[in-house]
Structure formats: structure tokens, C-alpha cells
Amino acid sequence: NAGVMQNPRHLVRRRGQEARLRCSPMKGHSHVYWYRQLPEEGLKFMVYLQKENIIDESGMPKERFSAEFPKEGPSILRIQQVVRGDSAAYFCASSPGPVLNTEAFFGQGTRLTVV
Amino acid sequence: RKEVEQDPGPFNVPEGATVAFNCTYSNSASQSFFWYRQDCRKEPKLLMSVYSSGNEDGRFTAQLNRASQYISLLIRDSKLSDSATYLCSGAYTGNQFYFGTGTSLTVIP
Predict the structure, then answer these.
(1) What is the per-residue pLDDT across A55-67, written as a single tens digit (0 to 9) for each?
(2) Are B46 and A105 within 8 A, CB to CB?
């Protein structure tokens, strides 16, 4: 059973371009969480999704950021018109059910660098 | 106010020492708690869940104190390989899954 897979591992974008980060949850997991981590800082919650639904997006910036988790395929975190401040590590985690009742596991992250 | 507060450390301890981390949480509705470890530039890895009755896994013991709203992690007989950042996390109804900023541990030979 493969773990949570994120790609790409490293992504370089110029200011103003779009960044697409992908997260394939573990087999049997239908809950996905996205986090952003700046150097020397903690994990900042961004969004929680179940298949085809956004459950909680309270941590997402209002503009330029969006997330989806379609019925088929990976979860996508999309950042439009990237700025230097978007440079960070983006981690996703998945769980088979609500994390109240189960445990969540992380992917290796995507390190976004905006130049 | 942060959901979870952790002493960032750093904690520098000799091999073989016992070290304890505490983590306080602000939302009394929090129901599930976990400890993760994160090595430099790596993903967080689940260390253990924290149960109300407390739980132990080898050299690691986790405790939950609901009355005082804190969780703790005790590491006995520290190894060099225990050097990492330890993140406490919690979840409550609505399922937002939040993290502390982490406590840095360095075990010294």
C-alpha cells in the first residue's frame, strides 16, 4: 500500500505563473488535508476536503488559491499568479475517515519556489 | 490565540536522558490528539495517537489531561536518532486538524 504521494517534489515558478500541486491519498483514504509550512515555522492548515467536497477552507487565502478533490484522480491545490510570498513547503495528509476517529498520514511535500 | 501552544525549545539533552514535552490546547471541544515527529525538510510522521487513558510505545509515553487541556510526550533513554522536531496536533468536531509550531529536540552524544 503506497503512502500519500505528492508531486512534483520541487516546483519553480516565476512570479505571475500558476502552480498546481497534486496529492494522491493512500488507498482507501477519502479525506485530504493541505498545509503550508514556511522555514522554521509550523504547519498552517489550509483546506480539508472529502471526495468532491470542500469541508473546511478557513485557512485558504481568499484570492488566488483553490483546491479540489474530484471523484477520480488526485487532489489539486492551485495557486494562481504566484508571488514570492507563496514560496513554502506544501504538505498534504490523508485519512480513511474523519481524523476524530482515525489517523492521518503525510506525503513528502511539494517545495514551491517563486522566482 | 493559537489553537495549540508548544514550547519551541530547543531542548538539548545527552544520550540516555529522559525528556518531556507539553502542549496546551485552547479548544475544549478538541477530541483527538496526536504526536508527530518531523525531521529537517521532511514530512511529519505520525509518532503516536494520544488516548485519554494514556498510552505507551516502547520508550515513548503520551498522556492527555483534559481538565488542564494539555497533552504530553515523554521520551525515555534518548537516542541520537530521536533528534527532530515534535509536533502536537488535535482535531475537533468539524474535523479541522491543527498543529502546534513544534518543539525542537537535539540529543547530544
Answers:
(1) 999 899 999 999 9
(2) yes
B75–chain A nearest CA distance, Å: 21
Mean pLDDT (10-residue bins), chain B, 109 residues: 82 96 86 91 93 89 92 96 95 76 94
**Closest residue of B to A89, CA-based?**
B41
Each as own residue / partner, the long-range contacts of residues B71-76 (CB below 8 Å, 24 or more positions apart, any chain) are: B71/B22, B71/B23, B71/B25, B71/B33, B71/B35, B72/B20, B72/B21, B72/B22, B72/B23, B73/B20, B73/B21, B73/B23, B73/B35, B73/B47, B74/B18, B74/B19, B74/B20, B75/B18, B75/B19, B75/B20, B75/B105, B76/B18
Distance of CA A58 to the CA centre of its chain: 14
